[in-house]
Amino acid sequence: MAKSAASQGSSSKGERKIELPATMTVKHLAEMLGISGVEVIKQLMQNGVMAGINQSIDYDTAAIIASDMGFEVTEKAEAEAEAVACEEDEGDLQPRPPVVTVMGHIDHGKTKLLDAIRQTNVVASEAGGITQHIGAYQVETHGRKITFLDTPGHEAFTAMRARGAKVTDVAVLVVAVDDGVMPQTLEAVDHAKAASVPIVVALNKIDKPGVNLDRVKQQLAESGLVVEEWGGNTVCVPVSAKQKKGITDLLESILVVAEMLELKANPDCAASGVVIEAGLDKTKGPMATVLVERGTLRPGDPLVVGETWGKVKAMFNDAGKRVKKAEPATPVKIMGLSGAPQAGDTLVVAASERDARMTAEKRQLERQQKIVRPVRPVKLDDVYAQIRAGQAKELNLILKTDVQGSIEPIRDSIERVEADEIKVRIIHTGSGNITEGDVLLALASKGVIIGFHTTPTVGAQRMAEAEGVDIRFYDIIYNLIEDIERAVKGLKEPKYAEVTEGRAEVRAVFSAGKKDKAAGLMVTEGKLRRDSMVKVIRKGQVIHQSKIVSLRRFKDDVKEVATGTECGLVVDGFAAFEPGDIIEVYRREKVG
Ligand code: GDP
């Protein structure tokens, strides 16, 4: 009989420890937990996951089941073939340039500003090169570099986050002063805040006649961005992308904000990074622009990029020039991959091309088997289970309503929900339909969308279904609040108490079948029922807990045995009885 993890050197409930891998089959999990596969499938169903015995589940899901059973769960560090170590000791770290994303309302001048920045501040060594759009570029001001991602917008930013790539250090929020703060400005603010990325405001189009900067600053203050000159801590720089005015001031402000972040990386190790954009070039084959995050990337490096692999044949910078190295926060376009990866994929230098290929192939296989790893969306119904498993410390909500006027009363009620172990955070509010941007934000921030008198767009609905994002619809505030309360307090989960039904003492041990051992018992209290759960107690410690396999008197199977009677007992998964052990039988009863 397989010895269960639960019985290996374990003692009472709560002290049992288990290490689980990043992915495993349901069957494997059942073996590790020492329970049947069917039991695991049932538990998964209770947590809203449908999986067959041979299907794979991820660590997060398995951890919920294991912690429900009283295990202390840790994730087993998985040694992937590509792991070429990069030491991150303080002494090895060097300052690195900040990576910046430009956001803001449509037509406020994001693209124009990115162009103006690039034209006025090309890196000295690149001057004269032909500007290439590779998805990111670097500029230099007073000898210090800044990397800009040149796909503007909070959607692109959050889409990368949803894929697990957190590349942006600072967000530049462009607000056209003739138009002021608009819905997408507010969205951008919420997206940046949800990612804890500091914001520098660029007040654009100051060349327009009759502009009133104070009006815009007032609007910004109303949305929580109080400018420095009014005593707040939002850095705000007036610019004109059209006339290329204020650009240097803006860059300097970005550097000041970035300085506080103390951005550092070790350049002297094997590189790792993230894909900014990728595609197939007619002559050069698969090409990918990557942003190096750690280490230095060089031609000849074998690498794994998402599900693709290869060796860097050549690298080009944003001026189209061949380069021999790319240090942290540097974007380069690389040639030599087996296929085109996807934006947001990670890049890691491998020990050899063979290792790189093996890892890439393993990832392809895992995807085909539908193992979803990086981000596991949150369902309102699982929140409580996640709190208990120590995986959730906050519940992020995105609140969309039909009319602006409903937002405040609902926000007030939600903020009054008392939750001891979890913080309920409203990361974004807005009126109108639930959009794809909302779904992305929920995915990236592990949030749940609340729709009050509103519905999703067709695209958002599809995306939510495909990604497993939870959208909840309500018409009555009371129901909405009640659901959130239930989720954070676990009221939906029935609570069980153990009711002891009887005790017996082990008097003898004998063989039962090939491997099993039976205990000869004397029932000392209550009664033993065939259907009960059972604990084996030795010297006051619970050494095993499972169910009864057989209960006999003489040669007959019996349903129950009363006090003062002898009987034989076989316990599931346990054979190491010793005379003097106490057998306690109990049932689980629903309470509350
Ligand atoms: P995006 O949608 O935010 O990327 O905005 P664009 O960069 O495409 O700019 C929208 C429009 O505003 C274009 O017609 C630009 O020429 C214009 N624009 C951008 N910046 C300025 C500026 O500083 N001053 C003026 N007057 N117009 C600008």
Written account of the structure:
With 592 residues, the chain is an alpha+beta fold. It is built from 14 helices and 30 strands. It has a six-stranded mixed beta sheet with strand order 7-8-6-9-10-11. The longest helix has 16 residues, at 353-368. 42% of the residues are buried. Mean pLDDT is 87; it is low at 1-14. Guanosine-5'-diphosphate binds at residues 104, 106-112, 152, 204-205, 207-208, 240-242.
Notable characteristics:
30 strands, 592 residues, single chain, 25% helix, alpha+beta, binds guanosine-5'-diphosphate, six-stranded antiparallel barrel
Architecture blueprint of SSEs:
Layout: E1 17-20, E2 23-25, H1 26-33, H2 37-46, E3 56-58, H3 59-68, E4 72-75, E5 94-95, E6 99-104, H4 110-120, E7 136-141, E8 144-149, H5 154-162, E9 170-176, H6 183-194, E10 199-204, H7 213-222, E11 235-238, H8 247-261, E12 264-265, E13 272-281, E14 285-294, E15 302-305, E16 308-316, E17 331-337, E18 346-349, H9 353-368, H10 383-388, E19 394-401, H11 407-415, E20 423-431, H12 436-444, E21 447-452, H13 458-467, E22 471-474, H14 477-489, E23 495-511, E24 517-529, E25 533-538, E26 541-553, E27 556-557, E28 560-562, E29 566-571, E30 582-591
Bound molecules: guanosine-5'-diphosphate.
Guanosine-5'-diphosphate is lined by residues 104, 106-112, 152, 204-205, 207-208, 240-242.
Total of DSSP H or I helical runs spanning 4+ residues: 14
Q: How do the strands line up in the largest sheet?
A: 7-8-6-9-10-11
Beta-strand residue fraction? 25-35%
Radius of gyration: 30 Å
Model regions low in confidence, pLDDT < 50 over at least 5 residues? 1-14
Give the termini separation: 37 Å
Helix- and strand-based class?
alpha+beta
Largest sheet: 6 strands, mixed
Distinct ligands: guanosine-5'-diphosphate
Shape type? elongated
- Rounded mean pLDDT score: 87
Helix content range: 25-40%
